[in-house]
From TrEMBL:
Cross-referenced PANTHER family: SENSOR HISTIDINE KINASE CPXA
One of the record's GO cellular component terms: plasma membrane
Protein species of origin: Eubacterium aggregans
Domain spans labelled Histidine kinase: 250-464
HAMP domain mapped to chain residues: 190-242
Domain of life where this protein originates: Bacteria
UniProt topology in membrane: Multi-pass membrane protein
Protein name, entry field: histidine kinase
GO molecular function: ATP binding; phosphorelay sensor kinase activity
Membrane-spanning ranges: 12-39, 170-188
Alphabetical keyword list: ATP-binding, Cell membrane, Kinase, Membrane, Nucleotide-binding, Phosphoprotein, Transferase, Transmembrane, Transmembrane helix, Two-component regulatory system
This enzyme's EC code(s): 2.7.13.3
């Protein structure tokens, strides 16, 4: 099985186990394989330090005291020779000091070797004073300083017994730490991976469409934050799913109603003599237009969300466009008692896609008509603010709770959850408004007070008059 196919739990277990194995291997190297080398090096470094301490005090009144201090501290024997007068100082606290076994010729050879080697020389001897090829039994360090020759000897105790003892100890320690390490690796890997595994199982449920799943895996900050994010995403998906179900119900109702009307009046005209009247034909036309508007809403939101709609930007008279839109509501104002007014101080030219801006205003007015109060009053205001013009559509309905305001622009969202026949649109109108205005890069928003009504607004840049027409 490849490493990438393993679960996080087993990957952590293997990594921790491998780390433990490397640590035990390094301990074995330093305590068994390299022990003799480290021991020999430490003894040689000790000789160098002791020799330097003696050399510093050569020819002074403290020389004897310095030599004795070195011998006591490092358990070595010392021979100092004054080349001028031949004085020899021997201080020996070590049994079987090799310096006593060396002949005058051997001592002279050490001196010559040090002289040829920049004043220092290190040699290995046996207990009997014979030169050894790389032997580690007894070491003599020779250093020349002026008229003095300093020789120090120390014994290298064999470490085979120590190595054997350490090896036995390390075998047991390796087994103990190996078992403890495996238990620790299993505990840590399970501790770290368990919250992730719990989150993963919940995520699989979410992927299957269970939006009611709850992510409650805990353990450390990152997984807690991830679960909070996933819980939020699941909640949003649950809202969308609920709104989509409502959309299906609303669209089914809104599409079936005009189809029923068209079918019914067509059958009347076909079956009953004298019913082929302009009024009946107009009802069929009106219902067909209503059906087309519903279908267009669904198509428009799909195109806008897919980003396949392009803008045909031009300068146009925004004031005249709104007045033309107002004419569509003549029937509502004359027959149904609606009061739809437009307030504007002057003519304003703006730049944008006139057809889509018309769609924005039309959807905002339709939304206001649907939610306005018993007085059936809707006001459209055009307000100039420096270089921008604000269009605001106000109704006198029940208003929107503050916590609901962020959702009014969502697809499928409707403030009233009980679908009404008089409802204008499918719940897609404000989402279409949002996408068109976002595509234009225009600011927009909503202000609402409960039991007083709501105001939906957006702003456009004002086009200035120039010799060739208008420009931004």
């Amino acid at each position: 099985m490849k490493l990438k196919e393993l679960s996080l739990k087993w990957k952590l277990f293997l990594f921790i186990t491998a780390f433990l194995a490397v640590m035990i291997f390094i301990i074995w190297l330093f305590q068994i394989v390299f022990l003799s080398s480290f021991y020999r090096k430490s003894k040689i470094d000790e000789l160098h330090t002791s020799a330097q301490s003696i050399v510093t005090n050569l020819g002074t009144n403290d020389m004897g005291e310095a030599i004795n201090a070195v011998v006591e501290r490092s358990n070595t024997c010392v021979k100092v020779v004054n080349l001028e007068n031949g004085t020899v100082i021997d201080v020996d606290r070590t049994p079987n000091c090799v310096l006593h076994y060396l002949s005058s010729q051997d001592l002279n050879q050490l001196y010559q070797n040090a002289k040829e080697n920049n004043g220092t020389y290190l040699a290995s001897f046996s207990r009997t004073g014979k030169f050894m090829d790389g032997g580690e039994e007894s070491i003599v360090y020779t250093q020349i300083s002026g008229n003095y020759v300093v020789m120090l000897n120390t014994m290298i105790t064999p470490v085979n017994a120590t190595v054997s003892t350490l090896r036995s100890q390390l075998v047991y320690l390796s087994l103990i730490f190996g078992v403890l390490g495996l238990l620790f690796a299993a505990f840590i890997s399970k501790r770290i991976s368990k919250p992730i595994m719990v989150t993963n199982e919940s995520a699989k449920e979410l992927a299957k469409g269970n939006v009611n799943v709850h992510f409650d895996g805990e353990g450390y900050r990152e997984i807690t934050e991830l679960n909070s994010t996933l819980n939020y995403a699941a909640g949003e998906l649950a809202k969308v799913e609920k709104l989509q179900r409502e959309l299906i119900a609303n669209v089914s109702h809104d599409l079936r109603t005009p189809l029923t009307m068209i079918t019914g009046y067509a059958e009347v005209i076909r079956d009953l003599p004298g019913e082929n009247t302009p009024e009946n034909v107009q009802i069929i036309i009106d219902e067909a237009n209503r059906l087309a508007a519903l279908v267009n809403d669904v198509l428009d939101i799909s195109k806008l969300r897919a980003g396949v709609q392009d803008l045909d930007v031009e300068v146009f008279c925004l004031t005249d466009t709104i007045r033309q839109i107002m004419k569509r509501y003549t029937k509502l104002t004359e027959q149904d008692g609606y009061s739809i007014t437009f307030e504007a101080d002057s003519e304003v030219y703006a730049q944008g896609d006139e057809l889509k801006i018309t769609q924005v205003i039309y959807n905002l007015v339709n939304n206001a008509i649907h939610y306005t109060g018993a007085d059936k009053r809707v006001v459209i205001r055009q307000t100039i603010c420096d270089t921008r013009v604000r269009i605001a559509v106000t109704d006198t309905g029940e208003g929107i709770a503050e916590d609901q305001l962020p959702y009014v622009w969502d697809r499928y969202y409707k403030i009233d959850k009980n679908h009404q026949l008089a409802s204008v649109g499918t719940g897609l109108g404000l989402s279409i408004v949002k996408n068109i205005l976002t595509l234009h890069g225009m600011p927009f928003g909503v202000l609402s007070t409960l039991n007083e009504g709501s105001t939906f607004w957006f702003e456009m840049g004002i086009a200035k008059e120039c010799e060739n027409g208008y420009t931004i």
